[in-house]
Design brief:
Strand order of the largest sheet of chain B: 12-11-15-13-14
Number of helices of chain B: 24
Structural class of chain A: alpha/beta
Distance between the termini of chain A: 75 Å
Shape of chain A: globular
Shape of chain B: globular
Largest interface: A-B, 64 and 59 residues
Number of helices of chain A: 28
Radius of gyration of chain B: 23 Å
Structural class of chain B: alpha/beta
Oligomer: heterodimer
Strand order of the largest sheet of chain A: 14-13-25-24-23-15-16
Largest sheet of chain B: 5 strands, mixed
Chain lengths: ~900, ~575
């Protein structure tokens, strides 16, 4: 700490603090144009000059405060210089403030007023008048207004890491360029929109702002796409969203957002939203019904089915897209009103192996560390994840960390954006994760790269575990994975010797026949190298959906209550009995795949599915559809008439995240508020209300009022969940407020690093040796190639939302393509853009081919964003042996020329 | 902003290779860089096209989009201007307007300021420098019109012998014959290095400290302190660097040029001494592209030194490893500014960076880096050999040692002089250089290049020291000296300086980028006879804003001579604005 005097006030700041930050500490209002909290100091505009006694004026944004400095933020000459700089800037800037969309939010305008600028004294100054660029789908570029502060260029570099923009030229003619100065259209822009956020004037703006003007209100909420949990500010005018901007206060996103969170929101007011309950008619079509009729029908039929067949004839699937409170209500309805534990959520088909493995080895089924750790790590081991597309905001942070010097090891069959930057990229065959991860453990063990004292102090089972690795050599793994043994060695050494190393994984690990075993292996790696319980270390799944963590946390699972307390645990049962007033069911319920089997066999008669298009997104589509068709009653709660809804007897119209209140839990256990920005559309209702309305008609009360108060729901979750006990809406009030669980009391600030210092929730952490097993299917003569699936940046899951948004304007977002390596394409005489047939044991689809080096030879890649392409029809029906998570990532296919 | 771009280059090009090098090679091979060349390079290197383009568009030579068979550039520096370059340029532009494949342009300073007006002809990647004096103008015009071969004689700068051995430091081992390594060694070059390598690095630092030598590039920072800072600084990766700033861009300065050409091994010896002192294993010579002869000499000098074991894994068998890479400038004056120079070496857009952090702590690729001027380095061998105290015994006040001066403009004996610091201007201009020729009266002298002060008769008794010139409202700078006689219009000189700033500004900071353009426009208005006192006052305000507000010494330095003009020579403005007065704000 050091002391200095600013405007006569003595102030103490940390070493390295800039003078600008110090002036802000005493409340001085030093004008700036090129400075931004999100960016490194730049020193271009010079508006922030301050007087420093005994020196020339200093630009405060990049001058470090020094002990004893005597600083004045105003003086006659400073005021004159600032006015003169504004005059210079304005001399090459259009004076059309009233007609400018940035009017009243323009920093130049505000600063000009602040310094008392009146007029330009220069006679006929030379000016630049570039033509506006309309080639970007979401942004309007009017560089006539640009003041060359480079904030857009800097944010594209320092935050987004895409380097789409640059400052080209020198002197007065230096200008912002996109790509090779070809305009945005050809620049491969990722459309995060951050350049518009940073632009202090109206040079780069959201098209929506340009056309719609200023909002009536701005509502802070949490994004409903991936698991990053970006805090967003929704701008609303006349009950329509005009624009969504990232909240600068967001703890998970730190003022950043991605193309989906920012621009793909129109679905909320899409013309085909369900706005009235639908009931199936005799002839199999739907008719609109009143809420009373639909609710009465469902309540009556559920009562009848329960009476006739018992509680186990019912099952519910709740949604990781919905709030914690909605999920909690869904499970409470299932357990209390229907009397069964058969509630599950779609984490079953994505990260159930993560939760399972982490829970078994470490004591809780969540990631160990936080997003912040990425800035403090020396090495990232990234396995089966493509975060720059699937989790763009966190992906950008990983990229920044790697560019900043952190080592990167990537295990992925695809050459993703991050794989290109990796120190070691193991392009392994789909399905060979366990082999490669085992071989990495072998290397760490055999080369003595373990942290023996950590192992001794904080783990058990090591010796027995270590005995099993003699034969699991890199050479052995090479034969299974196609990755040279030396690369596996290098990967293991890089991770084990880095210092602080952290592991991240995605669905490339979990959506596999032996996903849980890969998770165990990765945890073993973390444990044996002591990379646990410290900043910059840990083992973390990157969760795919906005609330996939929370849906499970609050008990929408068939074997546990909230906080993962087993349904058979006597203490948990007692606490639930006390609060619920009924005896909770004791036997574990059905998982999602079990539900479909039970429906086929006739044991399951009724299902209530909320916001989950299982007929579209689950593997082995025909089996799922058959199951749903076999039910006596299928209730679906949805915002659109999904493939699943089409099979329902009753469809309840639900609400989008923009229309409701609640909380989501993101990938790193951050509980954040969701706040309604729009009224619910038409006669649709909040999902929370619907459970209560049905319960009421069945003579029950879920206990939170009618309509239920989400804050009260949270209070009950907290009361029944030891690790959430300190969570309440009161503590989540402000914009972007958050609590990271574990949060065990009202004064517990939350936990960024679980198991800190090796204090595992399980007491000691457990090593678990895992055997190598083949994936469900492997290529053979008939189906010689691997098909693996994943996401792309501009779409989300089955596209329900993104396909009803302006993202569809983007060429890359319009349709599905099968990505094939040039080598394979040559061999099969397949040309880029040609329609080909992809055939698996389950069936075939016709799809356009894209020839790219981003996939490895012998493996083709597709997304599952395009229901009409029916990618899932091709997929293997194998699943993880512990959690039944389907093997979306490994199928055997062959490519043929499409029949003409 | 540049750290990520460097990281990307390291990833995709390998350590040490840069986009800048690749662009320079391409431009050299093809004579131009078209849009598609830039895109193809970006694709080949897996680098963002915006990065590749931003680097290319920063440099005059890399900005050329259409190859010219013959590119003729006339110097627009002050000395050449005084010698009539503007007329030559206008004449050639008209005369050669229709000549096939010929493009006529401008360049600032080719380092033969005593022989101006000068010009540069580029054909097939070969640069030829010549004077347009006498027959020169007609000869080049004829050759280019006819498409005939043109092989002019490169001018020679006169090097004047020092008045006494006392003032013979930099010129003690100096001469065209010393480009030969054997001759240089016979003359004693590398003797100081050989001795120093037997002692400690700190001994070298101590000698430089004791010499009290201040940096000769212009800023005058104590060189010993800089070496000590770099020596003591911790480096994250363990790497440190020495950069020879040979981007001598000041019009009227040919000091470094002559050292580079006539004492290359002494400069290299000084560079290795600095590297040994701080523990650097890699050095760079950043040499401006307008000095083709010097570039040729350095290519040979470095190769010879490497072959002789003076550079490499074990310098002179000492076990100390050091090598030097020659990097050519491509037409950007600002790259003489040390942070811009470092960005250029790193291969990222060469906009100036804020200081702190200083290069000594956070320089090339964020590692501690010595950036020294050629002349500073050239003095190290003498200092190490004779001891710092011997050097410190020369000079005056806080300005110790000798200084090379390049004199040009209205002076009888232009050329290079070595004098002890503290020598008065009068002695230099009138005793040594013979005063103003042709019976004309002395009007003014500009010392220190375009950023240096302009002084008049009343200042002639100023001693040439850092402190005296600063106190008088100027600076020693790099000590290029241009003399103006009674016929020179100083308002036009002022306009030329602002225009130079506008052309050479990196564009990053607002006062320099916009201010220099606006000030040039105000000058133009005044020169056109449409100016009023309000314009002169406005000029004063722009000048103050640039002087106090600019990020680096270019935008902050050009206002120094303008301020001098508006105070010492405000009467010059009366020809355009009757009753012109010094503005209240300056």
């Amino acid at each position: 700490m050091l002391k200095l005097t600013i405007d006569g006030i003595e102030v103490e700041v940390e070493e390295g603090t800039t003078l600008l930050a110090a002036t802000q500490k005493v409340g001085a209002d030093v004008p700036t144009l090129c400075d931004s909290k999100a960016l490194e100091p730049y020193g271009a505009c010079r508006m922030c000059l301050v007087e420093v006694e005994g020196q020339k004026p200093k630009a405060s944004c990049h001058t470090p405060a020094q002990a004893g400095m005597v600083v004045s933020t105003t003086s006659n000459r400073l005021e004159r210089i600032r006015r003169n700089i504004v005059e210079m800037v304005v001399s090459d800037h259009p004076l059309e403030c009233l007609g400018c969309a940035a009017n009243n939010r323009c920093e130049l305008q505000a600063v000009a007023a602040d310094v008392g600028f009146r007029k330009v004294r220069y006679e006929a100054p030379a000016q630049h008048h570039p033509a506006p660029d309309f080639s970007h789908p979401f942004l309007k570029l009017d560089m006539d207004k640009c003041i060359a502060c480079a904030r857009c260029v800097r944010v594209c570099d320092e935050v987004q890491g895409s380097f789409i923009l640059g400052m080209a030229g020198r002197g007065y003619d230096m200008k912002v360029i996109a790509g090779n100065d070809t305009g945005f259209e050809e620049a491969d822009c990722r459309s995060c929109g951050q350049c518009a956020v940073e632009c202090p004037v109206g040079a780069i703006m959201d098209r929506a702002v340009v056309s719609d003007g200023l909002p009536d209100r701005v509502v802070n909420t949490t994004c409903a796409y991936c698991g990053v949990g970006c805090s967003l500010n929704v701008h609303v005018k006349d009950d329509q969203v005009t624009m969504i901007e990232p909240s600068p206060q967001g703890s998970a996103n730190r003022g950043h957002a991605c193309v989906k969170g920012r621009f793909a929101h129109e679905y909320s007011r899409s013309g085909d939203r369900l706005t009235s309950p639908l009931m199936r008619t005799e002839d199999g079509t739907f008719r609109e019904a009143s809420w009373d009729e639909a609710l009465d029908f469902v309540a009556t039929r559920l009562t009848e089915i329960k009476a006739a067949h018992g509680p186990e004839a019912f099952a519910a699937i709740s949604s990781s897209r919905c709030t914690n409170e909605e999920n909690y209500l869904a499970q409470k309805f299932t357990r209390v009103v229907m009397g069964t534990n058969s509630i599950d959520n779609c984490s079953r088909v994505c990260h159930s192996p993560s939760a399972f493995g982490l829970g078994k080895s470490l004591g809780t089924g969540a990631g160990t560390n936080s997003f912040e750790d990425i800035e403090h790590t020396d090495c990232v081991l990234l396995v089966g994840a493509n975060p720059t597309e699937a989790h763009p905001v966190y992906g950008a942070r990983i990229k920044q960390a790697v560019l900043g010097g952190a080592k990167l090891v990537v295990l992925d069959p695809r050459r993703t954006e991050l794989a290109k930057l990796a120190d070691v990229h193991l392009a392994l065959n789909p399905g060979s994760n366990v082999a490669v991860v085992n071989a990495m453990q072998h290397v760490v063990l055999k080369e003595g790269l373990i942290d023996a004292s950590f192992i001794a102090a904080h783990t058990d089972g090591f010796e027995e575990y270590a005995k099993t690795f003699d034969d699991l050599t890199p050479e052995w793994a090479e034969t299974l994975s196609g990755v040279p043994a030396d690369q596996i060695r290098e990967a293991a050494r890089t991770y084990a010797t880095a210092g602080n190393a952290l592991i991240l994984w995605g669905l490339g690990v979990t959506e596999a026949g032996h996903g849980s075993n890969t998770v165990f292996g990765l945890i073993n790696l973390g444990l044996m190298t002591g990379n646990m319980g410290r900043l910059g270390t840990g083992t973390n799944p990157i969760r795919g959906q906005n609330n996939v963590q929370g849906a499970s946390d609050v008990g929408a699972l068939p074997n546990v209550f909230s906080d993962y307390r087993p349904v058979g645990d006597p203490v948990a049962r007692q606490e639930h009995r006390d609060i619920w007033g009924v005896e909770p069911p004791s036997d574990a319920g059905l998982t999602i795949p079990d539900m479909f089997d039970a429906a086929h066999s006739g044991r399951l008669k009724a299902m209530w599915i909320t916001a989950e298009d299982v007929a579209q997104s689950d593997p082995n589509t025909e089996h799922v559809v058959g199951a749903l068709e076999a039910l006596e009653l299928l209730v679906v709660q949805e915002i659109f008439l999904s493939e699943t809804a089409k099979l329902a007897h009753v469809v309840f119209p639900g609400a989008t995240f923009l229309e409701k209140d609640g909380t989501f839990v993101n990938s790193d256990r951050r509980i954040q508020r969701v706040r309604h920005a729009l009224p619910v559309l038409g006669a649709a209702r909040r999902d929370l209300d619907i459970y209560q309305l049905v319960a009421e008609r069945m003579g029950a009360d879920l206990g939170f009022g009618s309509p239920p108060d989400p804050a009260k729901v949270m209070d009950e979750i907290a009361a029944l969940s030891p690790l959430w006990r300190g969570v309440s809406y009161e503590r989540l009030q402000g914009d972007a407020a958050f609590l990271q669980w574990p949060c065990e009391s009202a004064d517990d600030p939350g936990t960024a690093i679980v198991h800190e210092g090796g204090a595992f929730l399980s007491g000691k952490a457990h090593f678990r040796a895992v055997p190598w097993q083949e994936p469900g299917e492997l290529p053979d003569d008939e189906f010689p190639m691997f098909l693996t699936t994943g996401r792309q940046l501009f779409h989300y899951n089955v596209g329900t939302q993104t396909r009803r948004s302006s993202l569809m304007q983007l060429d890359t977002a319009k349709s599905e393509r099968v990505r094939i390596h040039p080598k394979d394409a040559r061999r099969l005489s397949i040309h880029d853009g040609e329609t080909v047939r992809v055939v698996s044991r389950r069936g075939h689809i016709d799809v356009e081919a894209q020839v790219t080096r981003a996939t490895k030879p012998g493996t083709v890649f597709m997304t599952f964003h395009f229901p009409e392409t029916r990618t899932n029809l091709l997929l293997s029906s194998a699943a993880d042996e512990y959690t039944q998570c389907p093997e979306y990532k490994v199928s055997a296919v062959r490519l043929e020329k499409a029949a003409s | 902003m540049s750290a990520n771009l460097i990281a990307l280059q390291n990833r995709f090009l390998g350590q040490g290779e840069t986009v800048y090098d690749r662009l320079a090679q391409l431009a050299h091979d093809r004579g131009a860089l078209r849009d598609e060349d830039l895109l193809a390079l970006a694709k080949e290197l897996s680098l963002p096209p915006a990065h590749v383009r931003s680097v290319a568009k920063f440099y005059d030579e890399l900005r050329v989009e259409a190859p010219a068979k013959r590119a003729l550039q006339v110097c627009n520096g002050e000395s050449c201007a005084v010698a009539g370059a503007e007329g030559c340029h206008a004449h050639l532009a008209t005369a050669l307007g229709g000549a096939d494949g010929v493009v006529v342009g401008e360049v600032t300073c080719l380092g033969y300021c005593g022989s101006g007006p000068n010009a540069l002809l580029v054909e097939d990647g070969v640069k030829k420098v010549f004077s347009l004096r006498g027959e020169g103008l007609a000869a080049v015009e004829r050759a280019l019109l006819d498409g005939a071969a043109f092989d002019p004689v490169e001018p020679v700068n006169v090097v004047h012998a020092p008045r006494s051995d006392r003032e013979k430091v930099l010129l003690s081992r100096f001469g065209p014959e010393l480009t030969d390594l054997a001759a240089a060694r016979a003359a004693g070059v590398y003797g100081a290095l050989e001795a120093a390598l037997k002692g400690t690095p700190q001994a070298v630092v101590d000698a430089v400290k004791a010499s009290k030598i201040r940096g000769r590039g212009g800023a005058g920072f104590p060189a010993g302190l800089k070496l000590q800072t770099v020596k003591d600084a911790s480096s994250k990766r363990g790497d440190k660097y020495v950069v020879v700033n040979a981007d001598e861009g000041d019009a009227g300065a040919f000091i470094d040029k002559e050292l580079l050409e006539q004492a290359p091994h002494s400069v290299l010896e000084g560079t290795i001494l600095a590297a040994y002192a701080v523990g650097a294993s890699q050095g760079f010579v950043y040499l401006r592209g307008e000095y083709p002869r010097a570039i040729g000499i350095w290519k040979k000098a470095l190769a010879d030194a490497r072959a002789a074991g003076i550079l490499g894994d074990s310098v002179l068998g000492s076990g100390f490893a050091f090598d030097v890479k020659l990097v050519e400038g491509h037409g950007a004056y600002i790259c003489g500014e040390e942070t811009s120079l470092l960005r250029s070496l790193e291969g990222v857009p060469a906009q100036v960076s804020p200081k702190p952090p200083y290069p000594a702590i956070h320089g090339y690729k964020a590692a501690p880096t010595v950036v020294n001027n050629v002349e500073t380095l050239a003095a190290y061998p003498w200092i190490v050999e004779r001891g710092g105290e011997a050097y410190a015994a020369l000079g005056a006040g806080d300005s110790r040692g000798t200084k090379l001066l390049s004199l040009s403009g209205s002076v009888a004996k232009p050329g290079l002089y070595e004098v002890e610091l503290g020598t008065t201007l009068r002695t230099i201009l009138f005793e040594l250089a013979g005063g103003v020729p042709g019976g004309k009266a002395f009007k003014a002298v500009q010392i220190g290049g375009p950023l240096g002060g302009i002084f008049g008769e009343q200042h002639l008794d100023l001693p040439l020291t850092f402190e005296a010139l600063a106190k008088a409202g100027g600076m020693l700078g790099h000590a290029g000296i241009v003399v103006y006689d009674e016929d020179v219009d100083l308002v036009r000189i002022g306009r030329g300086l602002m225009k130079f700033c506008a052309v050479e500004s990196c564009g990053k900071c607002f006062p320099c980028r916009i201010g220099s353009v606006r000030a040039t426009e105000v000058f133009d208005k005044i020169l056109a006879g449409r100016g009023t006192q309000a314009d002169i006052d406005l000029l004063g305000e722009v000048n103050e804003t640039m002087l106090l507000g600019s990020l680096c010494a270019l935008g902050g330095g050009i206002p120094i001579p303008i301020k001098n003009l508006l105070t010492f020579f405000v009467s010059e403005f009366e020809a355009y604005v009757p009753g012109a007065k010094t503005p209240p704000v300056l």
